[in-house]
Specification:
The complex is a heterodimer of chains A (110) and B (116). Chain A is mostly beta strands and 110 residues long. Chain A is globular, with a radius of gyration of 13 Å. The mean pLDDT of chain A is 93. Chain B is built from no helices and 11 strands. Chain B is an all-beta fold. In chain B, strands 2, 4, 5, 6, 9, 10 and 11 form a 7-stranded mixed β-sheet that branches. In chain B, strands 1-3-8-7 form a 4-stranded antiparallel β-sheet, with no helix packed on it. Classes of the chains: A mainly beta (110), B mainly beta (116). The interface between A and B is medium-sized, with 24 and 25 residues.
């Protein structure tokens, strides 16, 4: 199996930058995903990393280091609507499922 | 394009009862995965259906079963409900492109199941 660890809660200020970390253990890595989930809603896809490095998509960027079993999601120019849970998920080789961490609940304050 | 739809939205059952949840995948998708999400936790993989067969299963008891129909829609059945089965049940659909590649999974809004 695999452990996926991320902080439970984070707080940041509107307009600032926040980095949400995720560490994982896996027997055969085949991709890491970040999802955003607002309270009471379905998760929505943010990013996918399978190779080392940084993937940038507008205000959101995701980084992966496979050798360290580490990823982070970087959110820039925070807006109030970014208050949500951010889920890190890992896909294993020869598996078709994603295994999720417990999520990081981000609160953006004015 | 309607996206992934699930029914019902909410459901209340009592212990020992059985429940069936339904999912229609996004147009063009052929793979359906089911997840259980307890309050304050991340989604936990239950199983995945492809070509009307269960292709992979997570760590859930046999009380959890499913089905996929020729039109790719899917059902999740839970027998002998326990209080601990209370959760948000999410359905996600995707287009199969093989294990060496990836196509985004789109989640439905979920069914909130409460077991009393």
């Amino acid at each position: 199996g695999q452990n996926i660890d991320q902080p439970t809660e984070m707080t940041a200020t509107e307009g600032a930058i926040v980095q949400i970390n995720c560490t994982y253990q896996t027997s055969g890595f085949n991709g890491l995903f970040w999802y955003q989930q607002h309270a009471g809603e379905a998760p929505t896809f943010l990013s996918y990393n399978v190779l080392d490095g940084l993937e940038e998509k507008g205000r959101f960027s995701s980084f992966l280091s496979r050798s360290k079993g580490y990823s982070y999601l970087l959110l820039k120019e925070l807006q109030m609507k970014d208050s949500a849970s951010y889920l890190c998920a890992v896909r294993e080789r020869n598996n078709n499922d994603m295994r999720f961490g417990a999520g990081t609940r981000l609160t953006v304050k004015p | 394009d309607a996206g992934v739809t699930q029914s019902p939205t909410h459901l209340i059952k009592t212990r020992g009862q059985q429940v069936t949840l339904r999912c229609s995948p996004k147009s063009g998708h052929d793979t359906v995965s089911w997840y259980q999400q307890a309050l304050g936790q991340g989604p936990q993989f239950i199983f995945q259906y492809y070509e009307e067969e269960e292709r992979q299963r997570g760590n859930f008891p046999d009380r959890f079963s499913g089905h996929q129909f020729p039109n790719y829609s899917s059902e999740l059945n839970v027998n002998a409900l326990l209080l601990g089965d209370s959760a948000l049940y999410l359905c996600a659909s995707s287009l199969d492109v093989g294990r060496d590649s990836y196509n985004e999974q789109f989640f439905g809004p979920g069914t909130r199941l409460t077991v009393l």
